[in-house]
Specification:
The chain is of the alpha+beta class. It has one domain (21-177): HIT-like (HIT family, subunit A, 2-Layer Sandwich), CATH 3.30.428.10. The chain has helices at residues 9-13, 23-29, 73-93, 131-136, 145-177; strands spanning 36-39, 43-47, 57-61, 98-102, 119-124. A hairpin with a 3-residue loop joins strand 1 and strand 2 (43-47).
């Protein structure tokens, strides 16, 4: 019999009872814990701690709302900018072959958290489906959340520094052209 070695799963097995309250609202008050990858003025991106696949990210508005129609235009735009930024980070760090993107609106649609709207970004690879979920009723995630969050945050910091440098250079060129 083959053995699967997944030592990080002990955290799930030994976890404390669920903390009451909204995970997104708790995360928005946090500085750099809870697997937060980045925050903007209107949205937050964090790792799903019960991922469907390695790199499963969640993007939500900072405002606690449950319905997509309650999003302001600014929140909609910011969420999609966060989606793009998150996807770019995943592509840079994990290089998946595709993505599943989506909202689960309501418990009947599969939402585990129904009170705070959020978007799932699930990286996919050729051959990432196998016998384990069917036969073993288990999903094998190949990377720890701690390691992945560090890699994504480092990639984001690097990307943001390059973006700031490019914007500064553009401003300097505009001033010299004037």
């Amino acid at each position: 019999m083959d053995k699967l070695w997944a030592p990080w799963r002990i955290n799930y097995i030994n976890r404390k009872p669920k903390i009451k309250g909204c995970i997104f609202c708790r995360a928005k008050k946090s500085k750099f814990s809870d697997y937060i990858i980045f925050k903007t003025t209107k949205s937050i991106c964090l790792l799903n701690i019960y991922p469907y696949n390695n790199g499963h990210l969640l993007v939500s508005p900072l405002r606690h709302i449950a319905k997509i129609e309650l999003l302001s235009d600014e929140e909609c735009l910011d969420m999609f900018k966060c989606l793009k930024r998150a996807k770019d980070l995943l592509q840079k760090v994990l290089k998946p072959h595709g993505y599943n993107l989506g909202f689960n609106l309501g418990s009947n649609a599969g939402a585990g958290i129904t009170g705070h709207l959020h978007l799932h970004i699930v990286p996919r690879w050729s051959g990432d489906t196998n016998f384990m979920p069917v036969i073993g009723n288990a999903k094998v995630i190949s990377q720890s959340l701690d390691e992945l969050s560090k890699r994504l945050i480092n990639a984001d910091n690097s990307s943001q520094k390059k973006l700031k440098a490019a914007l500064t250079a553009r401003r300097q060129r505009s001033r010299s052209d004037a």
